Amino acid sequence: MTRVFSGIKPTGPVQLGNLLGALRHWVADQDDADTIFCVVDLHALTVPQDPSELRTRTLELAQLLLAIGIDPERSTLFVQSHVPEHAELSWILECTAAFGELRRMTQFKDKSTDAEFVSAGLFTYPALMAADILLYDTDRVPVGDDQRQHLELARDLAMRFNHRYGNTFVVPEAAIAKVGARVMDLQHPTRKMSKSEDSPQGTILVLDDLATVAKKIRRAVTDTDTDVRFDIVEKPGVSNLLSILSACTGESPEALAGNYARYGDLKTACAEAVVETLRPVQERFAEYNADPAGTAAILARGAARAREIAGPVLSRARTNLGLLETGPT
Ligand code: TYM
């Protein structure tokens, strides 16, 4: 059976781009793959975090994943720091990656430019991400378009390690959807929607009040002429709304464009589709959120199953590398 693995950071409120670019594919993958999903709290540490906020965010992110339809009976859902194999394999892969290839990562360049404090972890982050993936003999990794380069690196590291030390890791494929893989900011449609808090009007949070969601979409920046057409370069604002509507309805953005004569009609349809997508998620989130002990139990079971898979893969890597096995005491 195909093995699917993916992760999400507990660094800020989940936004529509996370849902349309990645999370909805995680839910669909449960029908035909062995699915493993991870709240990657160690990745959040690359920038300083408030401890109690990190704890709350980690638990609530797990609850949100359950609310969107991750089914703990069919998927393994766990928190990265509960499985220490991730940190150990990460070190091994840091020693497999070249300094120069980590320096070329565009996300590192973006996040380190003008930052007051750049942690070493921000630089080595992609090696930890590769460890997450390679620990589970992963075949397919559903992610948004912004993770493409990190996935390429994970593949390169797997191949390099296999070449040096013998066949150890499965080489994973990125699964990046055609529609929704790059949801753009509603106010600045040439930059991607993100969790960071610098564009609250341009970002739809999955847990935003539904009236606010509709308002943000109605106020989205559109383009200067009045044509409803799917053209990302010439009409980024309208095309973003068409992509969002397409991801919510399953119809192609090109076909949808033909249904609307005016921007206002497109915005109304888009707002309705997003509100109806989020409504059941918010209702289920409230139920999970009322039962933190239940969520903790799901995560504990998930971590136990994750360790059953990760342990033997890490042992394989240790043996092939030549690390001395512990003898009997
Ligand atoms: P993160 O937490 O930033 O985002 C989680 C997922 O959401 C996707 N995404 C988007 N998709 C479309 N449009 C957007 N505007 C948008 N914004 C975010 C991301 O591509 C991602 O799929 N490094 C990863 C987390 C990670 C991981 C992994 C992923 C750690 N280890 C192993 C896969 C496998 C990250 O920062 O995602």
Account of the 3D structure:
The chain has 329 residues and is mainly alpha-helical. The protein folds into two domains: 3-181 and 292-321, 3-Layer(aba) Sandwich (Rossmann fold); 200-286, Tyrosyl-Transfer RNA Synthetase (Orthogonal Bundle), CATH 1.10.240.10. It is built from 13 helices and five strands. The strands form two sheets. A three-stranded parallel sheet has the order 1-2-3. Strands 4-5 form a two-stranded parallel ribbon. α8 links the parallel β4 and β5. α7 (120-134) crosses α8. The longest helix has 30 residues, at 292-321.
Map the helices and strands.
Blueprint: E1 3-8, H1 16-29, E2 34-39, H2 41-44, H3 51-68, E3 75-79, H4 85-94, H5 99-103, H6 106-112, H7 120-134, E4 140-142, H8 148-165, E5 173-175, H9 210-218, H10 236-249, H11 253-257, H12 263-289, H13 292-321
Parallel strand pairs: 1-2, 2-3, 4-5
Helix pairs in contact: 3-12, 4-7, 4-13, 7-8, 9-12, 10-12
The structure holds tryptophanyl-5'AMP.
SS-derived structural category: mainly alpha
- Give the termini separation: 39 Å
Element-by-element helix/strand order: EHEHHEHHHHEHEHHHHH
Number of strands: 5
What is the CA-atom radius of gyration, in angstroms? 21 Å
Biggest sheet: strands side by side, in what order?
1-2-3
What characteristics describe this protein?
2 domains; three-stranded parallel sheet; 329 residues; Rossmann fold; mainly alpha; globular; binds tryptophanyl-5'AMP; 5 strands; Tyrosyl-Transfer RNA Synthetase; single chain; 53% helix; 7% strand
Structure summary:
The protein is 53% helix and 7% strand. With 329 residues, the chain is mostly helical. The protein has a three-stranded parallel sheet with strand order 1-2-3. A two-stranded parallel ribbon has the order 4-5.
